[in-house]
Amino acid sequence: MEGIALGSETKLLEIAALNVRYELMYSQFAKVGLKPLPVSDGCTAFGAMPEATVRRHVLLAQNWDWIPQVEGLFLKIRPQTGPQVLCFTEAGVVGGKIGLNSEGVGLAINGLVSNKDDWERLRKPFHVRCWEILNSRTLKEALGKITSGERSCSANFIVGQQKKLGSGRIVDMESAPQSTLALSPEQGVVAHTNHFSDPDKLGVKQVLDEERRSTLHRYRRINQLLTPIRGGKEKLNMTKAEALLKDHDGRPESVCRHPNSAFPEDERYQTVVSVVMDLYTGQLKATMGSPCENSYQILHL
Ligand SMILES: [Zn+2]
Asked: What pLDDT digit, counting tens, does each position of 237-295 carry?
């Protein structure tokens, strides 16, 4: 953060604020309770284990839905020590939140809101944890970055790793301020949107408002689309993952999300970036903007 502040001639405090924007915004949403304020970072993410993919590679995929005016960027990070990283981030945020590294570790994320979220708790921020996950050499190390200590706010992390053919794992880690819940892929596939799978197990209450329909619908729909993969009738590859991310069932609150004119203009969200990652090859394909209107570009570590 000091480096970014120096390089951008910005105050460190302002850069720090950008790096805790997840906590600031989310806990405000939680505080206003069930008012029709949108949950931010609405996303649809999924992952497939080697047994569920054409080339037996671990694949992670995600649409990141956010305020259309906020543009992100992809970073290639080549540190002197530690893994090289290819990731998506927002200006001013250190490291990335969706991406992969040269150790075959990959990350996709979903925003979650619980009644226990409170930025004033001042624990290690969400975006710092994402940075740590993408700096990890092993899946175990990456998962430890999520579970260690308490969190100010809730979030979901889909973390995978594949270093060689014949291996590879994915764990979905739901996290609340004082608890975490690891979910394993079912029949090689895992999917997540913006609600807890079992809030009671985490000792929290789900905060869902106007977004309720969207996250529940997107969850049902992505799982429906993944059914042939789960059943072994089909295998997933990058192209098929891209097709799933372009799905418009239930539009505008679809997997490929478009602004909902029923909401006030500043509460409309859309898919801002769409990403498909192969953790074995280190290849990442992404669209800036909706995947239905932009073609996927190939990026390498
Ligand atoms: Zn679309």
From this structure: 999 999 999 999 999 999 999 998 888 877 788 999 999 999 999 999 999 999 999 99
Predicted pLDDT of residue 32: 64
* Rounded Cα distance, 38 and 211, in Å: 6
User: CA 118 to CA 102: how far, in whole Å?
Assistant: 34
Tell me, in angstroms, the distance from the centre of ligand 1 to residue 84's CA: 32
Asked whether 157 and 62 are in contact (CB, 8 A), the reply is no
85 CB-near residues (< 8 Å, 6+ apart): 75, 76, 77, 79, 95, 96, 99, 100, 101, 102, 134, 135, 301
Structural contact between residues 73 and 274, judged by C-beta atoms closer than 8 angstroms: no
* 273 alpha carbon – ligand 1 mean position (Å): 11
Question: Within a 10 A sphere around the Cβ of 197, how many other Cβ atoms?
Answer: 13
Instruction: Please tell me the distance between residue 251's alpha carbon and the centre of ligand 1 in angstroms.
Output: 8
**What's residue 220's pLDDT?**
97
Point out the residues of the chain with pLDDT beneath 70: 27-41, 209-212
What pLDDT is recorded for position 31?
A: 65
- Ligand 1 centroid to 186 CA: how many Å? 27
**What are the start-end ranges of the E strands in the chain?**
42-48, 59-66, 72-77, 85-90, 98-101, 105-111, 155-161, 169-176, 179-183, 189-192, 270-278, 283-288, 297-300
pLDDT at 37: 47
Ligand 1 mean position, distance from CA 156 (Å): 24
User: 141: which residues sit within 8 A by CB, 6+ positions away?
Assistant: none
Give the strand order in the sheet containing 59-66: 189-192, 42-48, 59-66, 270-278, 283-288, 297-300
φ, ψ at 60 (rounded to 5°): -125, 145
